[in-house]
Amino acid sequence: MTDFFYPFPPLLSGILLKRYKRFLADIELDTGEVITAHCPNTGPMTGVNQPGKRVLVSKSDNPKRSLPYTWELIEAHDTCPTWVGTNTALPNRVIKAALEARAIPELGDYTKVRGEVKYGVDKKSRIDFLLESTKDGEPIEIYVEVKNTTWVKETLALFPDTVTTRGQKHLQELMALPKPTRAVMLYYINRDDCTHFSPGDEADKIYGELFRAAIAQGIEILPCRFQNTPEGVKYLGLADLVL
What we know:
Elements: E1 5-7, E2 12-20, E3 24-29, E4 34-38, E5 54-59, E6 69-76, E7 82-85, H1 90-100, E8 112-119, E9 125-135, E10 138-149, E11 151-153, E12 156-159, H2 165-175, E13 182-189, E14 196-199, H3 205-216, E15 220-229, E16 232-238, E17 240-241
Parallel strand pairs: 10-13, 12-14, 13-15, 14-17
Antiparallel strand pairs: 1-16, 2-3, 2-5, 3-4, 5-6, 6-7, 8-9, 9-10, 11-12, 15-16
Helix pairs in contact: 2-3
């Protein structure tokens, strides 16, 4: 376990009434007020989209926003509650802060963190993060792609929870990088009740096949566990990989 912690702004508590049109969620705050919050999550949110569950939202002071509230967390389980992240824009912000804090030791030494860097043969793709350093005067690069996962079966986190041609493409692009470039798939496990990680073959068989092919070609897999609380996010270290 590390000491890395990413703080949240003040969050408001309420109950999820319904999610609809993918990006909207009606929520009854503890004050009794019913609001419509932005749901920044394009996926099916398998298992973390149940009306009646407690949720946490943030509120923006930006007057240009049509929806000032953002749905951030939902409480899963009844007997042992766990906060699960619902804002898919958050993982990259947390990972950026973790990379800058050198909180993930498996990535080794690097001196610079760059985000959204163009790469590939045609330079039309963007890697989430490029870590750079030099050794003996030679440049060293580590390509890091981040995937958010909230789908679980008992204590097993799974990605993806639906067919993802975009995710398939990202694996193929990492495999196409010239060797010996380091390439890393970092899975952001957005809940603390999972100790293991596996590709979601049931949801996307092709992704599972590409995942195993990527490992065979030397792509590194980092299933990173995070604990959400109303105060912020704590990094818990790596989950065990199950193939």
